[in-house]
Design a protein that fits this description.
Layout lengths: L4 E4 L5 H15 L5 H10 L1 H4 L3 E7 L2 E9 L2 E7 L8 H13 L3 E5 L3 H9 L2 E7 L10 E6 L3
Protein backbone atom coordinates (compact mmCIF):
# COMPACT_ATOMS: atom_id res chain seq x y z
CA UNK A 1 0.00 0.00 0.00
CA UNK A 2 1.36 3.41 -0.84
CA UNK A 3 1.61 6.19 1.67
CA UNK A 4 -1.48 8.00 2.91
CA UNK A 5 -1.27 11.75 2.58
CA UNK A 6 -3.18 14.20 4.71
CA UNK A 7 -4.02 17.85 4.74
CA UNK A 8 -6.14 20.22 6.74
CA UNK A 9 -9.54 20.75 5.13
CA UNK A 10 -10.62 24.19 3.93
CA UNK A 11 -14.17 25.46 3.53
CA UNK A 12 -13.97 24.76 -0.21
CA UNK A 13 -13.53 21.05 0.69
CA UNK A 14 -16.71 20.83 2.79
CA UNK A 15 -18.98 19.57 -0.04
CA UNK A 16 -16.53 16.71 -0.71
CA UNK A 17 -16.38 15.94 3.02
CA UNK A 18 -20.18 15.85 3.25
CA UNK A 19 -20.20 13.52 0.24
CA UNK A 20 -17.84 11.08 1.99
CA UNK A 21 -19.93 11.37 5.16
CA UNK A 22 -23.13 10.61 3.22
CA UNK A 23 -21.70 7.57 1.39
CA UNK A 24 -20.14 6.26 4.60
CA UNK A 25 -23.31 6.67 6.67
CA UNK A 26 -25.42 5.01 3.98
CA UNK A 27 -23.04 2.03 4.05
CA UNK A 28 -22.57 1.74 7.83
CA UNK A 29 -25.38 3.43 9.77
CA UNK A 30 -28.34 1.25 8.75
CA UNK A 31 -29.97 1.93 12.13
CA UNK A 32 -30.59 5.62 11.32
CA UNK A 33 -33.95 6.64 9.95
CA UNK A 34 -33.89 8.57 6.65
CA UNK A 35 -35.24 11.59 8.51
CA UNK A 36 -32.38 11.45 11.02
CA UNK A 37 -29.77 10.96 8.26
CA UNK A 38 -31.01 14.20 6.71
CA UNK A 39 -31.03 15.91 10.14
CA UNK A 40 -27.37 15.00 10.74
CA UNK A 41 -26.32 15.73 7.16
CA UNK A 42 -27.64 19.27 7.50
CA UNK A 43 -25.87 19.71 10.84
CA UNK A 44 -22.49 18.14 10.22
CA UNK A 45 -20.91 21.05 8.29
CA UNK A 46 -21.49 23.22 11.39
CA UNK A 47 -19.03 21.02 13.29
CA UNK A 48 -16.20 21.15 10.76
CA UNK A 49 -14.91 24.50 12.05
CA UNK A 50 -14.92 23.21 15.65
CA UNK A 51 -12.44 20.39 14.96
CA UNK A 52 -9.10 19.91 13.30
CA UNK A 53 -10.55 18.50 10.11
CA UNK A 54 -8.09 16.44 8.10
CA UNK A 55 -8.58 14.93 4.68
CA UNK A 56 -6.81 11.64 3.98
CA UNK A 57 -5.72 10.79 0.44
CA UNK A 58 -3.96 8.08 -1.47
CA UNK A 59 -2.92 8.82 -5.05
CA UNK A 60 -5.29 11.82 -5.19
CA UNK A 61 -8.24 9.64 -4.06
CA UNK A 62 -10.05 11.08 -1.05
CA UNK A 63 -10.09 8.08 1.30
CA UNK A 64 -11.89 9.80 4.17
CA UNK A 65 -11.68 12.46 6.84
CA UNK A 66 -11.05 12.79 10.54
CA UNK A 67 -11.96 15.48 13.03
CA UNK A 68 -10.07 15.90 16.29
CA UNK A 69 -10.97 18.17 19.20
CA UNK A 70 -8.27 18.19 21.85
CA UNK A 71 -7.54 14.52 22.55
CA UNK A 72 -10.87 13.27 21.26
CA UNK A 73 -11.50 11.77 17.85
CA UNK A 74 -14.87 13.37 17.10
CA UNK A 75 -15.30 12.03 13.57
CA UNK A 76 -13.71 9.44 11.34
CA UNK A 77 -15.48 8.54 8.13
CA UNK A 78 -14.10 6.63 5.17
CA UNK A 79 -15.53 6.40 1.71
CA UNK A 80 -17.09 2.89 1.73
CA UNK A 81 -15.03 1.74 -1.26
CA UNK A 82 -11.92 2.09 0.93
CA UNK A 83 -13.29 0.46 4.12
CA UNK A 84 -11.53 -2.78 5.05
CA UNK A 85 -8.17 -1.90 3.47
CA UNK A 86 -6.34 -0.82 6.66
CA UNK A 87 -6.77 2.90 5.96
CA UNK A 88 -8.71 3.35 9.19
CA UNK A 89 -5.98 1.57 11.15
CA UNK A 90 -3.30 3.74 9.55
CA UNK A 91 -5.26 6.93 10.30
CA UNK A 92 -5.95 5.94 13.94
CA UNK A 93 -2.31 4.95 14.44
CA UNK A 94 -1.15 8.32 13.12
CA UNK A 95 -3.70 10.22 15.24
CA UNK A 96 -2.72 8.31 18.41
CA UNK A 97 1.00 8.97 17.80
CA UNK A 98 0.78 12.57 16.58
CA UNK A 99 -2.37 13.98 18.20
CA UNK A 100 -2.48 11.85 21.34
CA UNK A 101 -6.12 10.91 20.84
CA UNK A 102 -7.44 8.93 23.80
CA UNK A 103 -11.24 9.31 23.54
CA UNK A 104 -13.81 8.34 20.92
CA UNK A 105 -17.60 8.20 20.96
CA UNK A 106 -19.25 5.56 18.78
CA UNK A 107 -22.86 4.63 18.06
CA UNK A 108 -23.60 1.44 19.97
CA UNK A 109 -25.54 0.15 16.94
CA UNK A 110 -22.52 0.63 14.65
CA UNK A 111 -21.03 -2.71 15.66
CA UNK A 112 -18.32 -2.79 12.98
CA UNK A 113 -16.99 0.60 14.07
CA UNK A 114 -17.08 -0.49 17.72
CA UNK A 115 -15.12 -3.67 16.93
CA UNK A 116 -12.65 -1.60 14.90
CA UNK A 117 -11.99 0.81 17.78
CA UNK A 118 -11.69 -2.00 20.32
CA UNK A 119 -9.06 -3.61 18.05
CA UNK A 120 -7.24 -0.25 17.96
CA UNK A 121 -6.67 -0.32 21.73
CA UNK A 122 -9.76 1.46 23.02
CA UNK A 123 -12.21 0.17 25.62
CA UNK A 124 -15.73 1.11 26.66
CA UNK A 125 -15.65 3.65 29.49
CA UNK A 126 -19.34 4.59 29.74
CA UNK A 127 -22.62 4.66 27.84
CA UNK A 128 -25.24 7.31 27.11
CA UNK A 129 -28.81 6.24 26.35
CA UNK A 130 -29.23 8.92 23.66
CA UNK A 131 -26.90 10.86 21.38
CA UNK A 132 -25.96 14.51 21.82
CA UNK A 133 -29.18 15.61 20.11
CA UNK A 134 -31.34 13.49 22.41
CA UNK A 135 -32.08 11.07 19.60
CA UNK A 136 -32.59 7.39 20.57
CA UNK A 137 -29.16 6.20 19.44
CA UNK A 138 -27.07 5.00 22.40
CA UNK A 139 -23.49 6.24 22.43
CA UNK A 140 -20.54 4.32 23.81
CA UNK A 141 -17.77 6.51 25.21
CA UNK A 142 -14.44 4.83 24.58
CA UNK A 143 -11.07 5.58 26.11
CA UNK A 144 -7.63 4.40 25.23
CA UNK A 145 -6.60 1.41 27.35
CA UNK A 146 -4.21 2.50 30.08
CA UNK A 147 -5.46 6.12 30.16
Amino acid sequence: MSMLEKRIAKKVDYPDVVGVWDRSVRATHHFLSQEDKEFYQNLIPNFFDAVELMLWYENDNLIGFSGVDGYELVMLFLDPKFIGNHYGTNIITWLKSNKGINKIDVNEQNEKALQFYLKQGFEIDSRSQADGFDKPYPILHLKRKGD
